[in-house]
Amino acid sequence: xxxxxxxxxxxxxxxxxxxxxxxxxxxxxxxxxxxxxxxxxxxxxxxxxxxxxxxxxxxxxxxxxxxxxxxxxxxxxxxxxxxxxxxxxxxxxxxxxxxxxxxxxxxxxxxxxxxxxxxxxxxxxxxxxxxxxxxxxxxxxxxxxxxxxxxxxxxxxxxxxxxxxxxxxxxxxxxxxxxxxxxxxxxxxxxxxxxxxxxxxxxxxxxxxxxxxxxxxxxxxxxxxxxxxxxxxxxxxxxxxxxxxxxxxxxxxxxxxxxxxxxxxxxxxxxxxxxxxxxxxxxxxxxxxxxxxxxxxxxxxxxxxxxxxxxxxxxxxxxxxxxxxxxxxxxxxxxxxxxxxxxxxxxxxxxxxxxxxxxxxxxxxxxxxxxxxxxxxxxxxxxxxxxxxxxxxxxxxxxxxxxxxxxxxxxxxxxxxxxxxxxxxxxxxxxxxxxxxxxxxxxxxxxxxxxxxxxxxxxxxxxxxxxxxxxxxxxxxxxxxxxxxxx
Length: 487
Ligand SMILES: [Zn+2]
Fold this sequence. Notes:
about 30% helix, 6-stranded mixed β-sheet, binds zinc ion, single chain, alpha+beta
């Protein structure tokens, strides 16, 4: 078993080791909350908690810096609990144990919890270390980041007075996050009419598979193709050449995944050569996508119909559904003007299913600008309404619009350059972070997100580069000191 007590900075690693002994999977934070409350009480620090379970610990500025600007530091208490199949580990009671491989610290067959145990331990070590220079500190520990940003969603509006916040949940030393996307889901329902399969008609499967898929926030700009959209394009072309009926359609899986596969059953009149109709469309699509999608396969196969009177969508419903799918937005909508290579607004047509009497579709919009999400969701409403359908919108969450003029980001940047002699990367991500929700609760909060090198989070391969933690720490405490001194 690896002893981490000699790692630098020792106080932070001591707190990390303590946290690792306490089970703290998402939605099971009671014991770590108790640990954090006891930590505050043992040191006579004022603390508060809100109804959601988030805790803030306050510490006055060091002598001479009592009136310096307040600073909030933030990490999330929960960790993703995953283990290898052959690992015996009870996340409800067993401590996380460690192993070292080269420069990296791992757990033994489980997630390590460096995401975000390093952030939480950093806050505790800073509160615990009387040798540091700092202004008044407000250390915010949120619950349940990993399964839906629950803590940040429910964060009370009266816990923080600081106007600056450093989120300690990033995973690349020297890469500062300064913005993220908000999101909103639209659940679309289109009513369908049916008829029996016309006599003598033949049914075929049309299937798209082998696309790369990926995360609809992080990978939407890579031109990864949406299987539902491509299947729709094929069926739209079929409809221009022949009468046909849709019998079944199914594609996609999760709201945040780009669909990799989609499948339809279509019925065509006797004598129709579907190959002649589809081959040029198929070739045109393959020409367009085999370079970004080398694994793509489009197959068309006749299927033997066992029930000759099976129901199929009537002609009007077939046309209506394919028109809707073709018109719904998908992919990158707008790139940012303020931040290079940053997707500002996008949509993922995530799933389609045909069930009894209706088609249901799930679309996931993202943007760092709330108005842009509204505008995209309105477009979905309009298309759906033209087809006589309905939309139910899920819980939206706000984005964090990058502020290129942020004084806090500039302070972090300049400090990084002074300490390490090189420029950090400053970037925004097209996925959700707690800062989006915190910024909504505390308007005008100047925010940045930093962290050490953490790889493969949320899997038993999660690892943190030990040396990067020391560098991240040196940078963090220097930023805190300079902010207090007004440098
Ligand atoms: Zn995290």
